[in-house]
Amino acid sequence: MYLGVLERQDEAIAAMRRAIELDPFSALMYSGLGVVLECSGHTDEAEEQERKAISLDPFFAQPHLVLASVYERLSKYDEAIVEHLESDALEGIDPSTVDSFKRTYATSGINGYRRKKLEWENQRIGSGKANYFRMAKLSADLGDKNAAFEWLEKAYQERSHMMPTSR
User: Fold this and answer.
1) CATH architecture for residues 1-75
2) What percentage of the chain's residues is helix, strand, coil (to nearest 5)?
3) For 116-126, what is the mean pLDDT?
4) What is the pTM of this model?
5) Confidence of residue 8 (pLDDT cuts 50, 70, 90)
6) Mean pLDDT for the stretch of residues 39-43
7) In this structure, are residues 52 and 30 in contact, taking their beta carbons and an 8 Å threshold?
């Protein structure tokens, strides 16, 4: 994935494929390939790799989150929300909170979900559990560039492992 960050997608894809050859039962490797493919615009193949990762480990949240991102990129919001909610549940978010996210999407669409999720993340700041990188992405998706940059700065300060994937 490091090569993908350096804009060397072809090399990153080849390296991830090699990693899968070495460990063909690793959901993490398939999901990593999906991330690189999604970042380089190969959404169909990214979806395929994330589905493979899920088939290997249905309780791994990352491929659901990446798949949600793929679906959002394709404006398939109904499919995206299913994956977001599954990822939320697998990350251990309280079932009543996940249900509230689902209800919000049903009544207010994808931006309603994004606002609700951002509000929820904001409430977690004092506990040290807030995901600043995710808050930056949600803010950007909602069109609030200033907030997105503020959250990215906080993500950078906490050395978020997701920073290399930001664009």
Assistant:
1) Alpha Horseshoe (1.25)
2) 80, 0, 20
3) 89
4) 0.85
5) confident
6) 90
7) yes
Structure tokens at 39: 């970042």
| Contact present, 110 and 81 (Cβ < 8 Å) | yes
Distance CA 140, CA 20 (A): 32
Q: Under the phi-then-psi rule, with left for phi > 0, alpha for psi from -120 to 50, and beta for the rest, what region is 159? A: left
The answer to whether the CB of 141 falls within 8 A of the CB of 122 is no
The percent of residues above 90 in pLDDT, for the chain, comes to: 72
Residue for token digits 């190969």?
42
What number of other Cβ atoms are within 10 A of residue 104's Cβ? 20
The whole-number pLDDT of residue 9 equals 81
Q: How many CB atoms neighbour CB 77 within 10 A?
A: 17
